[in-house]
Design a protein that fits this description.
By secondary structure, the chain is an alpha/beta fold. The protein is built from nine helices and twelve strands.
Length: 263
């Protein structure tokens, strides 16, 4: 059995579909974990959500989609709690436009309220239900999977939702040595230099493994397979790359590789 872990997608539906086609995944035995942030910034956030919904419905035990801070911001906006989702830096305005067919224009509180109503009426109920039901973490025999990070190296069940969704902590990135933890959220170019592996750009330091390889026209969308540490990447131009990672593998995963006859 393998676990395939996909980093932050951010609306790149075409890249996601190419990536999924690359994976030598057996749906009956292997797991697929999305680390969250399916939406915002890219050209087709609704398509990403629709595909994740379909995969999870067809294989609820084999496909897990975690909640990212961008999904949380969307829910907070619909609930009327916060409006940060519509600020330009988040890319939420693109998801709003894709679901509603309307441009974001805020001149008053009334405009915000009208956009909230328009989004709630436009987003398919199954998409909203799916986002509401996304878990904050997943764990299997190989690793712990979260969107952002862990409180002081604690198990995610003992970490705050704020940390699991939003945390950016250099001590975690550099020094975490517990059970391998695979995370997204922080683009690897912003993580400590020591730990960024080669031109493929994932991050490994001790037991912390970062898979958000960025969002721009040169950035790959990445998927790491455990326990074999195979890396699959797709690019906006359709290019595909596969690597076999051999350096800086956490010791616990090395032991699993040996048990599986992979090392």
């Amino acid at each position: 059995m393998k676990t395939f872990v996909v980093g932050d997608v951010h609306g790149r539906c075409a890249q996601l579909l190419n990536l999924l086609d690359m994976l030598p995944r057996d749906p009956e035995t292997d797991k697929l974990v999305f680390l969250g942030d399916l939406i915002d910034r890219g050209a087709d956030a609704p398509g990403c959500v629709a595909h994740a919904v379909k995969m999870c419905l067809e294989n609820p035990q084999g496909v897990i989609c975690l909640r990212g801070n961008h999904e949380q911001m969307l829910m907070d906006f619909i609930d009327g709690a916060y409006n940060i989702w519509l600020t330009p830096v988040t890319g939420g305005e693109r998801t709003f436009e894709q679901y509603t067919g309307r441009r974001v224009k805020v001149d008053s509180e009334q405009d915000v309220e009208e956009m909230r109503i328009a989004l709630e009426q436009s987003i398919p109920p199954e998409h909203l239900d799916f986002i509401h039901q996304t878990p904050l973490y997943h764990e299997d025999e190989y690793a712990i999977y979260v969107h952002a990070g862990l409180d002081d190296g604690k198990h995610p069940s003992e970490s705050s939702p704020l940390s699991l969704l939003w945390m950016r902590d250099m001590d975690f990135y550099k020094n975490y040595k517990g059970k391998p933890c695979v995370f997204g959220h922080t683009p690897t170019p912003l993580l400590p230099l020591r730990g960024r592996l080669g031109r493929h750009g994932i991050y490994i330091s001790n037991s912390a493994i970062g898979l958000d390889t960025g969002y721009n026209h040169q950035s790959p969308l990445s998927c790491l397979s455990l326990p074999d540490f195979s890396l699959y990447q797709t690019y906006v131009d359709g290019r595909e790359e596969t690597y076999q990672i051999t350096s800086f593998i956490p010791e616990t995963l090395k032991q699993m590789q040996k048990k599986a006859g992979l090392a």
